[in-house]
Amino acid sequence: MKKVFLGTLLLALSLYANTTLELYTNKSYLTKSFLSPQKVELKLPLHVKSEDIRYMLDEGCELRSEHVAQKVIKEIPKELQKLQEKKEDLSLQQNALLAKRNLYTTFDLQNEKDFSKIEKAASFLEQNILKIETKLSLLHKEIQEVQKEIEELERKPKIEYKLFEAHFTCKKNASVKISYPFEQISFQPYYDIFADTTKNTLNIVEKIALTQYSFEDLEDIDLHIYSKSFNQDLTPKVFYPHYLYKEQPVVYKDAVMAKSASLRAAMPEAINIQREDLETLYSYTLKDITLKREKTEKITLSSEEMKINLKNFIDGYGNNKAYLQAEFTPQKNYIQREANLFLNALPLGIIRLGNLNEKVNSHLYLGENQFVYVKKELLKTKAQSSFFSGKTSNEQWKYTLTNTQNKPLHVQFVTKTPVSKDGDIEVKPIANPAFDSMSAEGKTSWEFELGAKETKEIIFGYEIKKSE
Predict the structure, then answer these.
(1) pLDDT digits 0-9 by tens, 68-94
(2) Does residue 409 lie in a domain region?
(3) Rg (CA), the chain
(4) Distance spanning both ends of the chain, measured CA to CA
(5) Which pLDDT tens digit goes with each residue over 220-261?
(6) Residue 283 placed within a domain
(7) Among 146, 166, 259, 354, which residue's beta carbon has the most beta carbons within 10 A?
């Protein structure tokens, strides 16, 4: 999960307009706007340097000077101050009750001669001492809980910042924007995907979880979320020509292999959300968002419900299992990211959803269908050699597919035929019933309806001939 450190507090030295937070997939920026400022003071996180600060000035504004202080200022969090004050208040209540209890326990009745008065006074003292003990017990428990919260807060990073000061000459109604990297926030974009087989629908909900760790709440800010990383794919790959050479025999000899190392550079649902397709990417803009300090906000960015076609995909080339598959056509683009997958409200798990393109047929697997039984048996394996015809091998399998449900299922059965890249090798597929399609990569496919409680057999194999 990526992390970004923000911080900045206006010190009421100029007319403050608004705050904007920009989130890329790998970086974030905070921008504060000021109207006709002469002097601006901000609190900056320690990692921000003078060269990190960007200015966007309206015509009629000029930066006269700027200064980032090197002195580190430390503050006690407001939450910690409140807890310490609460503990002090509870301790005062505790001391007052202890004094009252001591007064009651030392009360002397020896000089009183009237037995009824003694009995009445003793009963009064006993009842009040019992009430005090109950209150003391509750206070002691509350003080312990507050102390635990204090210790947890004290273990967290301290609030540290440095002061920034800038001076401007601005005409009336001209504005200044000050922007810098923002590294005190963690954000995780993700999808919730809900498949409903009773309605034959798929709903993709795009969300983001945000937690900011600055020393203040960010209130009524504008939030811009971009679909790309900062500095991602700015230039195409270098073009290299593709030369074809006649293949030469490979000569193997002993050699010393050298290893090479490469170095790498180093909420409740939001309202007022707008999606915009920019020149090369898309973004979401959210207005009047509040991010409380150290509180996670889950914001829904978009939701799209689509009709789906369901079928059972059987991988005869791998696990020999049936997987429920949903075919659909999204009406917008989705970028690759993690997704929580639900089938009829039942959580299935977490998947990595690949890129989905607008108006392009796509599919999504919804887990294994345990009501479809697949059995694979080897029927034949044979190899022979002849001086005239060369080497010949023959392999065949029988697949038995059983639908144990009380409803018919649409099935796609897929297996793999070897692909020859040599003119001296011939591959002849064997199939009963005949397959419906075979791709250039050897993906061999049958599509059919498997009735309720029905069993179907597929014979598949291939013959390979190699010339001598």
Answers:
(1) 888 888 877 778 888 888 999 999 998
(2) yes
(3) 36
(4) 58
(5) 999 999 887 665 555 555 545 444 333 444 333 333 322 222
(6) no
(7) 166
